[in-house]
Design a protein that fits this description.
With about 290 residues, the protein is α/β, with parallel strands linked by helices. The protein has twelve helices and ten strands. The chain has two domains: about 180 residues, Rossmann fold, CATH 3.40.50.1100; about 100 residues, Rossmann fold, CATH 3.40.50. The radius of gyration is 18 Å and the shape is globular.
């Protein structure tokens, strides 16, 4: 078992956001994970399984949080890590984490799709294990967050809002709620209108890898995908910090922005997943805080 103490993150009542939005809001604070994002849940399982099968290393494509997590857990396991990122598209805080863990950084021209193709090629060439969310061990590890919410809240919330980049986390939450409680909340993944160049760098993915699974899970839950413009993401980010004192990265705030689209009614309980810590993306935050 490879662990850095991931999971067990707080579910925080958000009374001031609740008063502003007119619903009972709870914040699942995933920035409290070891590398500052929800990715650690799945990475602990995926890297542990890779080590168990005798892999010499792991590889991933990333817009940042997967990169930081893969680098840290590979270092913990004592195996190699190759991190493939779109050149110029990853926040400085996340690249610093990759460097601190001693992982190999490979920059490619193009978007996340180009990075993922390059990661697949590296995996084939070196015999490394891909630890993106296409790896089922990653998804299984991330289901633990849904089980925690059921335990912390005493049941399934009416509404779940979370950022929508590649879609793996939405898939994991749907699976996790069904495993833990046999029921789903209404699920509202929040995506950026400008997927290709949004300030919310963690969800800067033009073609979601798990689009089909997200659409199926959302439809089954009775929810829908919510699209936010840049002003809505920025406003939600400021509200999270100034009303509740939580410093999350901009992509995380998209979950709260979804509530403003009327996805929850008075008297309902809505859980917003804050996927990453604000220190992950200092450049974006300098612009949003003005």
């Amino acid at each position: 078992m490879i662990t850095l103490g991931e999971g067990g993150t707080p579910l925080l009542a958000a009374p001031r956001l609740s008063a502003q939005l007119g619903v009972e809001v709870w914040l699942k604070w995933e920035g409290a994970n070891p590398t500052g994002s929800f990715k650690d849940r799945g990475m602990a399982v995926a890297v542990g399984r890779a080590l168990e099968t005798g892999a010499q290393g792991v590889v991933c494509a990333s817009t940042g949080n997967t990169a930081a997590s893969a680098a840290a857990y590979a270092a913990r396991a004592g195996i190699g890590a190759a991190i493939v990122v779109p050149a110029g598209a990853v926040a400085a805080g996340k690249l610093a984490q990759v460097a601190a863990a001693g992982a190999e950084l490979v920059e490619v021209d193009g978007d996340f799709g180009a990075a993922f193709e390059a990661a697949e090629a590296l995996a084939s060439e070196r015999g490394y294990v891909i630890v993106n969310s296409t790896n089922p061990d990653r998804i299984e590890g991330q289901t633990s967050a849904a089980a925690e919410i059921v335990e912390q809240l005493g049941g399934v919330p009416d509404v779940l809002c979370l950022p929508y980049g590649g879609g793996g986390n939405t898939k994991a939450y749907a699976l996790g709620f069904e495993q833990a409680a046999g029921a789903l909340p209404r699920i509202y993944p929040a995506q950026a209108e400008r997927r290709g160049d949004t300030a919310a760098s963690a969800i800067r993915i033009v073609q979601p890898v798990h689009r089909a699974e997200v659409e199926e899970a959302v439809q089954r839950s009775g929810g829908t995908v919510v699209t936010l413009n840049e002003n809505e993401i920025a406003s939600a980010w400021r509200d999270v910090g100034r009303l509740e004192g939580i410093f999350c990265e901009p992509a995380s705030a998209a979950a709260v922005g979804a509530i403003g689209h009327g996805v929850a009614q008075a008297g309902e309980r809505a859980v917003c997943v804050l996927t990453g810590h604000g220190l992950k993306d200092p450049d974006a935050i300098a612009r949003l805080a003005a």
